[in-house]
Amino acid sequence: MQAEYRQRREQLMSKIGNGIAIFRSAPTAVMHNDVEYAFRQDSDFYYLTGFNEAQAVAVLAPSHPEHRFVLFVQPKDREQEVWSGYRCGVEAAKQVYGADEAYPISELDEKLPQYLESCDRIYYHLGRDRTFNDKILNLWQRLMRTYPKRGTGPIAIEDTGPILHSMRLIKSQSELELMHKAADIAVEAHNHAMEFTQPGRYEYEIQAEIEHIFRLRGANGPAYPSIVASGVNACVLHYIENNRQIQDKELLLIDAGCAYGYYNSDITRTWPVGGKFTPEQKTLYEIVLEAQKQAIAQVQPGNPYKLIHDTAVRVLTEGLVELGILKGEIDKLIEEEKYKPYYMHRTGHWLGLDVHDVGVYQHGEDKPQILQPGQVLTVEPGLYIVPDTKLAEDQPQTDPRWVGIGIRIEDDVLVTATGHEVLTAGVPKEVADLER
Ligand code: GLY
Ligand code: MN
Ligand code: MN
Fold it and tell me: Which pLDDT score, from 0 to 100, does residue 34 have?
């Protein structure tokens, strides 16, 4: 794997000329008092280094004669390590992680300016760590003040995102292996949850079964707070209380995925708690399923990303018109976004080191993002007939028999050279397979 991290650094360095790129490890977060949340490295930092400790800075300096990759890390400290775990330390930062030079993080203020004096541009992403942002900005300001003396130094700061995130958007073989694994574990968890579901159980019991499988199979845990939403709770997109007793004749919507080796899966299925859809549930479900299938069919290299959402919206809108939930001419309803009270989110997102992964969705108003092999995305249309929704004046009052039903179906899809592969195809979604 070290060879791949090195290759990624080389690729990035080949695009920044005489610039210097600086990456900061993720901040640590306090849960309560002196207890911290489990540390999770910043995805950009991890992608370029594989280094998973806090309090670290990575510097990429393509024009430096010797130190093209520099790491600042926490030094070995036996006493500290007894409390908070193993540290790689300065020496191993070179030996294990391939840094040309490494320093204790305490020397950052002294050493970093020396690297920056001769570069012409700083590549840095202004992140959540305000203190570190200030450090970089202050340093830049100082270097600009002394610029006339040297005639060298960074005259601009540029975000690393556009370069690095377009790299992260295309997954390598080793990344895809981890994503397959994350998908397989979540598939197993959803299949188990389906079997375990029955009226009378609590949402959290099903959550526990799912997350048990995540950890049992070696995943770090959920990729995001698992959503286990029965009945009308399914109409709350990010419902995570998961504390209700599920009832017969309701639907159960589960949106849960895991993080495995830093990569994520993200699956949603909706199924009837008691084993049989009511006619209304089934009718709406089949519309969402058709929207998802048609949208997935558009996942082809060369197609614009936007086509996936547009396809889903059209099928959903047509379905709602057929049921009399929406009234009007299809194209006009779509143009005026009249479907939005029932379908208020996008049809998916990039997936990878982050659940809502980096990468742009379009290159400006009229320049679409074109699908390419190696991209991974979710396809997740839904319908939510939310109670008490404010409807447009020209739209009919919703027949109460539809109200309170929430459905989403979500798969993770890889763009391949010839089409696509659904990584999460192992969880059933056909009506016949969900009924018992
Ligand atoms: N669970 C987050 C999402 O589906 O985007
Ligand atoms: Mn998703
Ligand atoms: Mn999801």
Answer: 85
Q: How far is CA 407 from the centre of its chain?
A: 21
Decide if 34 is catalytic. Answer: yes
Residues 222 and 267 in one domain: yes
Minimal-distance CA residue to ligand 1 atom 1: 255
Residue 205 CA to ligand 1 center (angstroms) comes to 21
End-to-end Cα spacing for the chain = 45
Q: What is the CATH number of the domain that holds 366?
A: 3.90.230.10
- Listed in order, strand segments (DSSP E) in 146-282 are 157-158, 221-222, 227-230, 251-256, 258-260, 263-264, 267-272
Question: Across all residues in the chain, what is the average pLDDT?
Answer: 97
E strands in 146-266: 157-158, 221-222, 227-230, 251-256, 258-260, 263-264
- Does one domain contain both 35 and 87? yes
* Residue 392 pLDDT > 90: no
Annotation marks residue 238 as catalytic: yes
Return the closest-CA partner of residue 270 out of 412, 377, 430. Answer: 430
Q: Catalogue the E-assigned strands of 213-305.
A: 221-222, 227-230, 251-256, 258-260, 263-264, 267-272
User: Are 311 and 428 part of one and the same domain?
Assistant: yes
Domain, as residue range, for 76: 2-167
User: How far is 373 from 181, CA to CA, in rounded Å?
Assistant: 19
